[in-house]
Design brief:
The protein is mainly alpha-helical and 887 residues long. It contains 43 helices and twelve strands.
């Protein structure tokens, strides 16, 4: 649906530009309304429905709520048009399930009516009912009495004309009221002159009703009419008059009966959560007109089902309003059910809807004036909020007026209007909390209150009920701010009276940072989800606001202790040479450690070297960078650099000294000095992962069963210390060891390794499990393709140090099949890979497997049990596998 966009039309001299006010499809909301209205018509048309049942629950309301600018008013107008005229209903909305002549829509904009108050709302409902074409005597007499008491000397006709209501609804109401008075006066045999005076008619009618005279039989069925006419004609009494409207509508002849659909828009403008005077009157009207259907649009959920409002409103609680007691949900994408919740959150536009809106809003010769690249930027920045699209269209026209051709970069922009629209109906405390939580990716109520520096949580609680707050009940912190609103609050020029200074923002960042640290320190031990969540938000705050590291140092140590490597926000800056603060350096350090699972290890060395060169980190965190750089050097085959790094960390005797000593023991193993590595393992203890070091030694000696036992002990220790990453390391290596001597058991061990790796990001360990599967399947002719795939993966990852192990697995497969030529090629590959001296003993092992002699110029390692014993063990593993394959 489209109409002329006058604001855009008067923003350009280009008469070739067609400016259309575009309505983007809201089919899901229409389906929700259609289902609810259909159910309402079925219920009110049933024989047992009683318009005077004041105790039955009410289910005659549907609420569409959402953040300011999401398109609630546009939706309300389109719903009114679609209900009034089938020709104005979008084709995709489909046909309704009711006759069009049974529906009488009337839309009331409460933003405009709030100044006039409840009186005008009642008048607008009655004016809309003039379309029925007949008086409604019970109501009309009561209204005339009220009018004469509260507007002495002011004709109703003049009031309606001055307010513009006569032009909108016609001038039939005064005539219908006069007709109703005359009819009742005639029935009561009153003089004509008296009949024109509402007070005289009212008194006579009340007496007739009390005395149950035959002359009042037409109105005698309205049991409470006399009470209403006798009550003082004030605003409170007026709020009960809608019952008379409901009664009159219910007694219309069947062919004339209609259902009013009353659309109340901008419901947030009738007051706030502490002043509910007007809301109480409106709610009373809704309750007293159960035959009417009410469509309420506003920023917040309707709270009528909240028992806590008892005393502020007349009818409260889930028993009174069962449909409103459900949690707010987005409008369904499938056809709505009649029992669906009646509180519908209006979601943002989809990217496709945003692009369609922008393409059709401004056109020339039927083609979009806003080009595709600009539309893409606006769509991305908008987060689906229609108000942002409107503001961007205005900016597009403004740029053209200035003589510039708009470019995509012009729309990487925040609008102050978004801030003012968002803050307009918040209390000062709620605005303070909103600005504070805009610094956070997610929050709960205690975190929001502490970030705002408030001693009480009520403002934070109220803020979470606003439609621009999204909720994920399964997250650590369930609430987060709508993406565009967050960006605008933090970035746009804030012109509000209580706007924050840069120092205010800095103080808020420090409060939020401190609150995150408190949550981590007071949370459950070993709660890794909480740790990672606090780190993600804390790192961003510290980096963006140049805060001291504080609790981040301890959290960083806790993060690396388990070798799990979940992704951390914020991402690296892309320019590690621009590190200025300790927070910058820590972000880059942890980002490098996380990304090394997905980057070439040479890149990891480069990034960690840059961090170390800044000298921004405290000594203990420099040790972290040194240790992991040494590991990356080992992975890329730079043994000397790796040993120097390990030694430097070990000499520092800090937290990672045991791990560095393990690295030195492993370095001895890589060089073939097995006795030295074995002796070092005895001193490492759990902190140095002694069982894993022993397992790495035993299988190289041709004792995979002994290695598997050591890895099992290492996995058990890791589980006892709640170290999931270390447990997965040991299990993958155990699977590799078992695969040499028992392929059937290896199936279970490999499956368990994959289970332990399921939620971890450990690339090298995952490849170890894949190598274990190769060893398990040795003798399978299809193995060569899998070996080739793993070679490529190791090359991409920069895990040079793992390549010899992969080739050894290939050599085992070739020895089992007696593939002499292939084994010769593998031995040649191993000689090339071990030229620096590391893993040179793999040439020995591959030769042992095939029963081949060692090259004459080869330097043998220092085997724990001597060369001959080790040779027999490896050859036995091959012959045992050959026998297994021939069974």
């Amino acid at each position: 649906m489209a109409g002329r966009d006058l604001r855009a039309l008067f923003s350009t001299n280009d008469r070739g530009v067609a400016a259309q006010e575009t309505f983007t499809n809201r089919q899901a909301q229409w389906e929700a309304l259609a289902a609810a209205l259909t159910e309402h018509l079925q219920r009110t048309g049933a024989p047992g429905f009683d318009i005077e049942d004041f105790e039955a629950p009410r289910d005659n309301v549907i609420v569409f709520h959402g953040v300011g600018g999401v398109g609630k008013t546009t939706l309300s107008r389109q719903l009114e048009a679609a209900l009034a005229d089938a020709g104005r209903r979008p084709a995709q909305w489909g046909e309704p399930g009711w006759p069009a002549d049974r529906i009488l829509p009337v839309r009331i904009d409460l933003a405009r009516s709030a100044t006039a108050g409840f009186e005008q709302i009642v008048l607008m409902i009655r004016l809309a009912l003039t379309r029925i074409g007949r008086p409604l005597p019970a109501f009309d007499i009561a209204l005339r009495r009220y009018w004469e008491a509260n507007h002495p000397g002011e004709p109703l006709e003049e009031y309606l004309r001055r307010r513009g209501l006569a032009a909108r609804f016609g001038e039939m109401l005064p005539q219908q009221m006069e007709s109703a008075l005359a009819e009742v006066a005639q029935g009561l045999t009153l003089p004509g002159t008296v009949g024109s005076v509402a007070g005289a008619v009212t008194g006579a009618l009340v007496r007739a009703l009390r005395e149950r005279r035959q002359t009042a039989r037409a109105l005698a069925g309205c049991a409470r009419l006399a009470d209403l006419l006798e009550a003082e004609a004030d605003l409170d009494t007026l709020s009960y008059y809608p019952h008379l409207l409901a009664w009159e509508l219910a007694r219309l002849p069947k062919g004339k009966r209609v259902t009013p659909v009353i659309l109340l828009d901008t419901f947030e403008d009738i007051g706030d959560q502490t002043r509910r005077d007007l809301e109480r009157l409106i709610q009373r009207t809704v309750w007293l007109m159960p035959g009417a259907f009410w469509v309420i649009t506003g920023r917040s959920r309707l709270q009528w089902a909240d028992p806590a409002l008892q005393g502020q409103l007349d009818y409260t609680g889930p028993t009174s309003w069962p449909g409103l007691a459900h949690s707010a949900v987005p409008a369904p994408r499938t056809p709505a059910r009649a029992d669906a919740p009646r509180q519908v959150l209006i979601g943002d536009f989809s990217p496709e809807d945003c692009d369609d809106y922008l393409a059709r809003r401004l056109t020339r010769d039927g083609q979009p004036l806003i080009g595709d690249p600009i539309r893409q930027v606006i769509t991305t920045r908008s987060h689906g909020l229609p108000l942002y699209l409107d503001l961007s269209v205005a900016r597009f026209l403004e740029l053209r007026r200035s003589g510039r051709t708009p470019q995509p970069a012009d729309f990487d922009h925040d609008f102050p209007a978004l801030v003012s629209r968002t803050l307009s109906d918040l209390t000062p405390d709620e605005r303070h909390v909103l600005r504070s939580v805009s610094l956070l990716d997610a929050f709960d109520i205690p975190l929001a209150a502490k970030a705002a520096g408030l001693a009480h949580e009520a403002p934070a609680q109220r803020l979470t009920e606003r439609p621009f707050i999204r909720e994920n009940p399964f997250a650590i912190w369930p609430f987060h701010l709508h993406g565009l609103i967050r960006s605008a609050v933090r970035s746009a020029d804030d012109t509000t009276d209580d706007r924050w200074t840069p120092r205010d923002w800095q103080h808020a960042a420090h409060r939020a940072f401190t609150a995150l640290g408190e949550q981590w320190h007071t949370g459950p031990d070993h709660d890794r989800l909480l740790l990672v969540a606090c780190l993600r938000q804390g790192l961003r705050l510290a980096r963006d606001h140049r805060l001291d590291l504080g609790w981040l140092a301890g959290a960083a140590w806790a993060y690396i202790s388990d070798s799990v490597w979940e992704p951390l926000a914020p991402p690296d800056t892309g320019d590690p040479t621009g590190l200025d603060t300790a927070a910058d350096a820590l972000v880059e350090l942890l980002s490098a450690l996380t990304r090394r699972q997905h980057e070439h290890r040479a890149r990891t060395v480069e990034r960690l070297t840059t961090v170390l060169d800044t000298r921004l980190l405290p000594t203990e965190l420099e040790e972290m960078a040194l240790y992991y750089r040494a590991k990356a050097h080992r992975d890329t085959g730079h043994s000397q650099e790796s040993r120097r790094g390990y030694q430097q960390v070990a000499d520092g005797n800090g937290r990672l000294a045991p791990a560095a000593r393990r690295g030195l023991a492993q370095a001895a193993r890589l060089a073939g000095d097995f006795p030295t590595a074995h002796a070092a393992a005895q001193t490492l203890g759990w902190e140095g992962r002694h069982q894993r070091v022993l397992g790495d030694l035993w299988w190289l000696q041709g004792e995979p069963e002994r290695a598997a036992a050591a890895y099992l002990a290492g996995r058990t220790e890791a589980e006892q210390h709640a170290k999931a990453g270390e447990a997965a390391h040991n299990q993958a290596l155990r699977a590799l060891a078992v695969a040499f001597y028992d392929p059937r058991q290896a199936d279970d061990e490999i499956d368990l390794a994959h289970q332990l790796l399921a939620n971890l990001d450990l690339r090298a360990t995952t490849i170890n499990a894949a190598i274990a599967a190769l060893i398990r399947d040795a003798g399978d002719p299809s193995l060569d393709d899998r070996v080739h795939t793993l070679r490529t993966e190791l090359d991409v990852a920069g895990l040079t140090s793992m390549a010899p192990t992969l080739e050894l697995a290939a050599a085992f497969h070739q020895a089992v099949l007696d593939e002499t030529d292939a084994l010769a090629a593998t031995l040649s590959q191993l000689r090339e890979q071990t030229q620096n001296g590391d893993y040179a003993y793999y040439i020995d092992i591959a030769s042992f497997m095939a029963g081949l002699p060692l090259p004459a110029d080869h330097t043998a390692p220092h085997w724990l049990d001597g060369e001959e014993v080790t040779r027999r063990r490896w050859r036995t593993l091959v012959t045992t596998r050959q026998q297994h394959l021939h069974q």
